[in-house]
Design goal:
This protein is of the alpha/beta class and 288 residues long. The chain has one domain: 3-Layer(aba) Sandwich (Rossmann fold), CATH 3.40.50. The protein is built from 14 helices and five strands. It has a five-stranded parallel beta sheet with strand order 2-3-1-4-5. α1 packs across α14, α7 packs across α8 and α8 runs parallel beside α11. The protein starts with a strand and ends with a helix.
């Protein structure tokens, strides 16, 4: 089954790229859409080369499956609170000179409010809804009908979807849905820095209003996510183990683990993941 990871900008995707790099069994079948390898580059690949790809991941809108033969595919994605995503997007652009919006924003000292209400990009206008319906074209207006189309796509074509605010639980859900044998241990990547702790309420309200369909979609996704998690046996225990594992790797791998935790690590096949994880991190960290 071919997997397509639809990476919504500023929704935890860079970290998840590393998880996928680590856990995907066919390393030669991975294709990443990046600033150095565009969607058009992918489309221009010879047909035979495209058919060798069984994991396509990156910033692209729904519909990329049309460039593969047959219907043996499934999508996966992560949602984020719409207001927080737009705020993070703004501060990411400000600190990233290579971003396509940097000069229009940083060089003009554009405020967060002006940025969030601008027409610079449809990423700021119900960007999650647009990506999930193949509607990035600014000529397309977001409507209740488009919202229902997004829900239909998620039900029909997505093996699962997660929530950034519950990232660890999302990974455990994915692990169970996709049959990963190893645990999805990770290190956080591409975290936006230097964000103010307090955003004026009028700015938040303006972002909410402009992204009202994303707000509805996110609320629906949270409900569906909770339903999916309720079907996974021992999900809370597995989330706890993932947190232990991440802390252990961050603080020096398995040194000094308590005996009880070592037993749990053995139960969940966590020993021996470290070297594979570091390789995936090296490959992904510079790509997004």
């Amino acid at each position: 089954m071919r997997l397509l990871f639809l990476h919504i900008p500023k929704a935890g995707g860079t970290t998840f790229h590393a998880v996928l790099e680590n856990l995907h069994p066919n390393k030669n079948g991975i294709c990443s859409i990046t600033p150095r390898f565009s969607i058009q580059d992918f489309i221009n690949l010879p047909k035979a080369k495209r058919e060798e790809i069984d994991l396509l991941k990156g910033h692209f809108e729904f519909g990329m499956h049309q460039y593969f033969e047959g219907g043996d595919f499934q999508y996966i994605t992560l949602f984020r609170k719409p207001v927080e995503r737009v705020i993070s997007h703004y501060y990411y652009v400000l600190r990233t000179p290579q971003h396509y919006l940097y000069h229009k924003v940083a060089k003009t000292n554009m405020s967060l409010l002006d940025y969030a209400t601008s027409d610079l990009t449809t990423e700021l206008d119900n960007g999650q809804l647009r990506l999930l319906t193949g509607s990035e074209d600014p000529a397309i207006t977001c409507t209740p009908e488009l919202l229902e189309k997004a829900k239909e796509n998620l039900r029909k074509y997505f093996v699962s979807f997660g929530i950034v605010e519950e990232f660890d639980k999302s990974l455990i859900l994915f692990k169970n849905k996709m049959g990963w044998e190893d645990f999805p241990v990770y290190k956080k990547l591409n975290v936006t820095k230097k964000k103010p702790q307090e955003i004026p309420q009028e700015v938040r309200a303006a972002i909410e209003e402009r992204n009202r369909f994303d707000m509805e979609l996110y609320a629906w996704a949270r409900e569906e996510f909770a339903k999916s998690c309720s079907t996974v046996p021992a999900i809370e225990e597995e989330v706890k183990i993932l947190k232990y594992a991440n802390k252990a790797f961050a603080e020096g791998y398995m040194e000094g683990l308590e005996d009880g935790k070592k037993a749990l690590f053995k139960k969940y096949n966590l020993f021996g993941i470290g070297s594979k994880l570091s390789g995936a991190l090296r490959k992904v960290s510079g790509a997004f």
